[in-house]
Amino acid sequence: MARPLRRDENKKVLQYFIPRLLQGVMKRFTTSTIAFVTAEAAAAEHESLNNRHVRTLCMKGALKEAMRILHDMGQYVDSSTYAYLLQTCTRKKALSEGKLIDFHMTEAGFKPDICLANMLLTMYTKCGSLADARRVFDLIPEPNVISWTVMIAAYTRYGRDKESLKLLYQMQLIGVQANQFTFASVLPACANLSALLHGKEIHADIIRSGFQYDVFVANALLDMYAKCGNLENARNVFDKMPQRNVVSWNAMIAGYALKGCVGEAQKLFQQMPETNEVSWTTMVAGYGQNGQLCAARKVFEKMPDRDVVSWNAMIAAYAQNGHSKVALKLLQQMQTTGVKPNPQTFATVLTACADLVALDQGKEVHEKIIINGLEPNIFVGNALIDMYTKCGSLENARHVFDEMSQQNVVSWTMMIVGYAENGCVEEASKLFKRMPEHDAISWNAMIAGYAQNGGSKKALNLFLQMRQRGLTPTPQTFAIVLSTCANLASLEQGKEVHEVIIRSGFQYNMFLCSALVDMYAKCGSIDYAQNVFDRMSERDAVLWNTMIAGYVHNGYIDEALDIFQKMPEKVLVSWNTMISGYAQNGCLEEAMELFNKTPERDVISWNTIIAGYAQNGHGKEAMECFRPMQQANIKPNRDTLAIVLPACVSLEQGKIFHGVIVQNGLQSNVFVGSALIDMYAKCGSIENALSVFDEIPQRDVVLWNAMIGAYAMHGCGKEALQLFEQMQQSGTNPDHVTFVGVLSACCHAGLLDEGCKYFNFMNQYFHITPAMEHYGCMVDLLGRAGRLYEAEDFINRMPIKPDAPVWGSLLGACRIHCNVELGERVAEHIFELDSTNAAPYVLLSNIYAASGRWNDVEKVRKMMKDRRVKKKPGSSWIEVNKKVYVFLVGNMFNPQMHEIYTELKRLSGLMKGAGYVPDTRFVLNDVEEEQKEHALSHHSEKLAIAFGLINTTPRTTLHIIKNLRICGDCHSAIKFIAKIVAREIVVRDANRFHHFKGGQCSCSDYW
């Protein structure tokens, strides 16, 4: 066993070993340290190489490879590398990669300086992610002028102009001085909002900051003033610019063109020291916007070079002025020159097709879009949806919508609007509920859809839902809802909406004040309307006109005139409103006097006075206004012709206006076409009506309805039903008017089973709730078929209270079938609802007379006398040699009366020889049979026919119009006359048309 060391030995050992031990430890420590430091240096060198490599890749545009390396680099990324990466993402608009870089910086704990933060902000704005941009902006501790400017510019670029202005004021509030780029970025927001006042305030800030002579800022100022319609200030800025570039000249030219001052624009264009394609294109667009197509085409042809924008401007000029065929030809020409159309080209042409309801041409454009590979483009897809929905082709629109690889809120909203405008409000509602996100515009579209399709209560409920979900209604929302309240005459709900408007801070919004005045006026509360009007310190022309129209609507023409006279500046619309007011109240002399005083007249002025005469039963005067209108070089539009056509009292007049329609190129317009079909039908020419219908390739529901109604009017029931089936096969959805036509056709043709079937189909298959007109048709149908008590039971089971015309249909059936007991009961219902109309008294009197109850006939006459009800005398008129002749019962004022009575006597003998027996049941006086026969022979329609026979050549068709229902004896007599004289005689009575030919009538004695 070893002994322990002594103290002195222990000391020696320590003295020997400790230095060596320390030396070994130090040696090992130094080696480890050197190894560690060397490793660190190597790692740093590696990361530096990675940073350089990433930057090199970014300069080459190889973003994906750079991102792969970034993923493996961890936290060893420098500020410069991040900057290169963000700049590359901005150039490539690579949002996904940009978000990964943002996340990488956060995970690495890297806090970017203001320069890098602004790069990140710029990347998000250029990639379209405003929410991320705002998040980054809000995280910057002290944003500088660049940060603010980038954010302001982004809001302006993406149409969020109000936020742009708000941000500018916040920036100024905290003392950050705007630079020239800030001002140039915010001024377009003022232009987009037409916010002239804000623009002027910013102009003052620009002058204080000394940037007014900066060409970049001056151009933005000039553009703002021009787009706000203040050409004087725009020109002032332009004239004071020490230096102008081509953008300055183009902006000023565009301003003049926008305001219709094409002459000034042309002068400036000729003064330009140098022009570019934008200058030429601006002139083409300017001329096009002002309808000067020849001038636009001349400029276009002179252009030294044409790019796709130039072609688009020329195509748009034709499209916007209704020349869609020329626009399509120009599109073909454009492609033959080697210029490839872009989405804007196709969108422009599709808009033209939509405006003209040119479905076939729209389909041609769609084919070209597919050929050019642009179908997936969201912009083009939306234009296609718009075109198809406006052309009534919902199936094609839905196909485009469903095939789109990506749909935005505009796509969804357009489809909803399309369904709603075509009467498919339930489909619109289903689509609205499926929308991934709703904005105010989509809510507005659905609310308007309900309102426009008779669902006013649903519209108001949806408005409440919108508010309950926390969405802020826009002024447009409020305007739609106020219009709905006006349609419902719902004053209390209108007042509630008014309160919400006040709480929302929109009480002084000019647009909404006009809507409020309109709502209160239509609800009969003219005092509230005046109160809203009086509270406005500033009033535009729309508000003044709305107030005038409000008084006119309520029949206060003197008060309307007082407002009109107080107007500081009377615009043409004001004059037209007052003329319309006088005309609507039957004051035609005053209307004409004001019309003659109007300093200038447009097509609306002429339409208003023509409509005034036509609506007050002065068709002749309405026609007489048309000639001076043409002499004044005022081109009639579709509304003019739609007003004039119903005033045509003869086929010859109608044909003259048909010629005017062709001269003005409106023969394919569905609105005018519908009026033409109606005119021809009412003038007795179903053949001409059908010819017009066949010549219009693109048909909307109104056109189909017009032709179905024409067939119904002429008793062509089977043809009407066949057309209804064709309408459905074409993809056009019927509306409530369609079913009025269909059911009327069944009535006039005695198609009872078909009528009952289609009445049930309305709600079952087409989701159309029957209205009073549909119930009236069904009562008429059942009554004419002799099912009187079933008709009475049908009326008693109606979900809505029947009106006098519904009961009147049953009373007419009682007259046909001589049911006195039921007739008396029905007449009492009618007298309770309307005791002033002579028709039910006459029908009841006829029922009594046909049953020989002459005492009751006298009682009815006494009742009419006591109630001061006057029977309208029967009258008939005929046009011969372009002159209209009117005949009353027993008329002795025509200079040819002797010849007329001689002709009637001749015809009477021939008729009796052919088997005619006068039906004296239709004489309402208790006199001898011989006197009854004499009375029957002097009915107005027989006088008109005799006059026509002695004043026209053989085989000429006679067209007679009668103001009352033709009596049974006259109906029988005319069949004999038509056969004897070998002519067609067309009689239009108060209910329908009768075509007499060869001893037969088109109604088959069912009328």
How would you portray this structure in words?
This protein is mainly alpha-helical and 1007 residues long. It is 71% helix and 3% strand. It contains 54 helices and 6 strands. Strands 2-1-3-4-5-6 form a 6-stranded mixed sheet, with helices on one face. Strand 3, helix 54 and strand 4 (985-988) form a beta-alpha-beta unit. Helix 17 packs antiparallel against helix 18 (324-336) and helix 29 runs antiparallel to helix 30 (526-535). Mean pLDDT is 86; it is low at 1-5 and 28-44.
Shape: elongated
| Strand neighbour order, sheet with most strands | 2-1-3-4-5-6
Distance between the termini: 146 Å
Can you give the helix content as a percent range? over 70%
Kindly state the number of beta strands.
6
Strand fraction: under 5%
Largest sheet: 6 strands, mixed
Helical segment count? 54
Helix/strand class: mainly alpha
- What integer is the average pLDDT? 86
Topology, element by element:
Blueprint: H1 7-60, H2 63-73, H3 79-92, H4 95-107, H5 114-126, H6 130-139, H7 145-157, H8 161-173, H9 180-193, H10 196-209, H11 215-227, H12 231-240, H13 246-258, H14 262-271, H15 277-289, H16 293-302, H17 308-320, H18 324-336, H19 343-355, H20 359-371, H21 378-390, H22 394-403, H23 409-421, H24 425-434, H25 440-452, H26 456-468, H27 475-488, H28 491-503, H29 510-522, H30 526-535, H31 541-553, H32 557-566, H33 572-584, H34 588-597, H35 603-615, H36 619-631, H37 638-644, H38 651-663, H39 670-682, H40 686-695, H41 701-713, H42 717-729, H43 736-749, H44 752-766, H45 772-784, H46 788-796, H47 804-817, H48 820-833, H49 838-850, H50 854-866, E1 875-880, E2 883-888, H51 897-913, H52 929-937, H53 940-951, E3 958-962, H54 968-981, E4 985-988, E5 993-997, E6 1000-1001
Parallel strand pairs: 3-4
Antiparallel strand pairs: 1-2, 1-3, 4-5, 5-6
